Amino acid sequence: MTAGAVAIVLAAGSGERLGRVEPKAFLDVAGSPMVVRAAEAAAACPAVGSLVVAVPRGHEGTARAIVAPGKPVVVVSGGISRHASVRAALAAVPDRASFIVCHDAARPFASPQQFVLVLGALEVNPDAAGAIPVVPVTDTVKRVRGGFVVRTEGSREELTLAQTPQAFRASALRDAHTRAAQAEREFSDDAAALEWAGYRVAAVAGDPDNFKITTPEDLALAELFAAERAHG
Ligand code: C5P
Fold first, then answer.
1. What is the pLDDT along the chain (232 residues), one digit of tens a residue?
2. Could you tell which of 26, 82, 102, 214 is best to mutate to test the pocket of ligand 1, judged by most ligand atoms within 8 Å of the CB?
3. pTM of the model
4. How far, in Å, from the CA of 188 to the mean position of ligand 1?
5. Peptide bond into 72 cis (omega under 30)
6. Rounded CA separation 152/143 (Å)
7. Residue 153 pairs with which residues in a beta bridge?
8. Domains (ranges, CATH) in the chain?
């Protein structure tokens, strides 16, 4: 039923926190740029019919040359925030698309199965407008302000960390982003925009291997992880 879903790949972030001049998504992990790996994982999900890839302005040509996952790809210029990049990508998603799955290129180890899982969750939960993968929090979470603990976030069994890919009914995703833009609100993931707009978001089991690359240490870990995987 979700056949023909469009995957949005967010790859328009900078390499600043990695201490690099090149945009993060264009850095290699085990010989392939992260944006290529992310697009290939999305395209390997049978329900995904086409992709929209948001890249930093000036890198559109490179992206068109290297992102070729075997399904149609549209490359757009991203914005100054992740939220703005999603809006730019949404403008390139055909109106007929019923489902959209958003994925961060900064997670180069997402499996095609994660895309299948989140899109499938929308089929079995008709009242859910979105479905996201989450992993449990194993540490105790403290809110710290000005160098002091102000609160311990309770009910650890209810606390989770959100990952991408995140799947949405296209109408809800468009509506949440339009309303957030009108209210001048920005969110760090798309599910947060839907929650704020009053939509129900289902949570499915995430994958600890699908970690996000933010720091130089994450990149080094990613190389080790990929090498270990390659050697079985
Ligand atoms: O910076 P961070 O890793 O949190 O970004 C999450 C994802 O959002 C990355 O894949 C990044 O490329 C993307 N992004 C974007 N446009 C921005 C900022 C981030 O597409 N302006």
1. 456 899 999 999 998 888 888 999 999 998 999 999 999 999 999 999 999 999 999 999 999 999 999 999 999 999 999 999 999 999 999 999 999 999 999 999 999 999 999 999 999 999 999 999 999 999 999 999 999 999 999 888 899 999 999 999 999 999 999 999 999 999 999 999 999 999 999 999 999 999 999 999 999 999 999 988 888 7
2. 82
3. 0.96
4. 9
5. no
6. 6
7. 141
8. 5-230 (3.90.550.10)
